[in-house]
Amino acid sequence: MDQGRTKYQGPRTKDTTDPKGLQRHRPLVATVLLGFSTVLAAQASRTDFVRGVEIHTDAGGSLYSVQLPDDVYDTSTRADLADMRVLNAAGDAVPHTLRQVPRTLAQAEWRSVPSFPMTEAQSGLAARTHVKIGADGAVLEVTNERAAGHATTAYLIDASGVKEPLSKLGLTWDASPGVTFLVPVSVTASDDLSRWRTVVSSSAIALLQREAFTLTQNEIELPGERAKYLRVSWPRELSAVTLKSVRVQPRSEAVQREIHWRTLTAERVEPAGAALYDTKAFLPIDFVDLEFADPTDAASVAIHSRSTAASPWTTRHSGLFYALQEASGSIHSSYASIDRVSDRYWNVETTQEGGWKPNRAPRLKVGWHSHELLFVAQGAAPYTLAYGSARVGPSNAPVAELLVTLNQNGRETQVRPATLGEPRTLGGADALKPAPTPLPWKRIVLWAVLIVAVATLALVASRLFNDTKQKPA
User: Fold this and answer.
1) How many angstroms separate the CA atoms of 220 and 173, rounded?
2) CATH number, domain 260-368, options 2.60.120.260, 1.10.443.10, 3.40.50.720, 2.40.240.50
């Protein structure tokens, strides 16, 4: 073969399976791709929260519940309380959810019961009043000797047909035109009409006129005792008032939820007469009430709230509140129920001319039922409820969906009660400072991958170009 000539072996082809350029850059590509696939979300620690409280649980349970302490509402930075975690002993967050407690539980229905006037009931003169009862204990007849000057001094109430303990007594009366009164009455109870025990030593009933309003107090709270017969005293001031009918309300068997109350003092009164208040917390408010500066006062008001200082006001309640005090007793209007709202700012406007007098604005009382916290006991105890943070957001735990699958019996047996210790400081005020802005690793990695890909393509193209130039004609 001619040594001076090179044998033609056909056109060269690019080895695209493992080019030298790609081999040289493979470690960098692998490192970048590994970083892109292992970007992790930071785990919240105890120091990311302002405050915390230890949760005490018994052994063996998997689901626990506890009522949120007031300190959570005062510390949280969010109205939805999403800056909260339940941490196990290792500091890992466990699934949790919040459940709103029903605002009111069904009350037992009122029941009408017979009532009978009694004369000289407090004198011990049995001949003045004769009571006839049936074999079942029901009062059949009450006969009074209505001699001159012997007015009705009590009413006998036959509750023998009600087997449950009683919680309230409701009175309906007829009064002569123009009659007003505010008087204390007492209630005694008996099972045999002979031996009587005091169950209510003094409770005010009233019929009053204030401006265009008629104020009536006709319900008496009872201690929940079971009694066949009740006797309500009827003072001399009620001589022009006749008891028309009586109702009793049995005590509900359902556990009554505690209402948490907070009293707010007006921070200022606007020139238009509205008193302004700040709860300084995200309270789930269900109830409102007023405390007047004077022991005797009444006002028709409108109560508004808003979530921020710049938001428009929303009316939450309109109506009459009053507090009346006399030598014979005192009465107070009932608190008002409203749709649950976590607004921070409130105002109270009055229809009185000129609004509230300087330094005489009422105090606003807000009430709520605490949320129920439910969590899954993952990891070792003790567990810590941590709250108040500018560094965490809502958690995505399917606890609520799990609860839906449990029937009522399942909840009672599988959701165990827990208790709380004393709140303590965790990260303190530093937890209210946002965490340093993290590097945008996903964007950095994406651009790095793109740059490496472009560089690799450029290298491959350069090699192909060089090979083409070196190819003999």
Assistant:
1) 14
2) 2.60.120.260
